[in-house]
Write a structure and sequence with these properties.
Helix content is 34%, strand content 16%. It has 111 residues and is of the alpha/beta class. It has a three-stranded parallel sheet, sandwiched between helices. The N and C termini lie far apart (31 Å).
């Protein structure tokens, strides 16, 4: 586990998970792609990870520091994926971290 609390956002490797097994899969794919693009524009090392089932197998194929959950519906919003991520020791990107003022300022001004 990597302690990301004091790291600058652009130094993180972020896995954006989307897709999954729910009926809201297509919405999740759109959300995941939008988040992925926004992170890339902010010069964050982000990887889009499309989940195809109710497991995290696809995450084992890449290296990352933290996960951004863009899953919708069951599995993504009911706590199931969060529980799995925590059980495996993966750090989850929380909204509070994204909203830190330095992240927003750096994303807008770092050219």
């Amino acid at each position: 586990i990597v302690d990301v609390s004091m790291r600058k956002p652009e130094s993180l490797r972020v896995a954006v998970i989307c897709g999954g097994p729910s009926s809201e899969r297509e919405v999740s794919l759109v959300s995941g792609r939008a988040v992925h693009q926004a992170l890339l524009l902010a010069q964050v090392d982000a990887k889009l990870v499309e989940l195809h089932g109710g497991n995290l197998r696809e995450l084992s194929l890449i290296q990352f520091d933290i996960v951004f959950n863009a899953l919708h519906g069951a599995f993504g919003e009911d706590g199931a994926v969060q529980r799995l991520l925590e059980e495996k020791g993966f750090e989850i990107l929380r909204t509070a971290y994204i909203c830190r003022s330095e992240f927003i300022v750096e994303a807008r001004t770092d050219k």
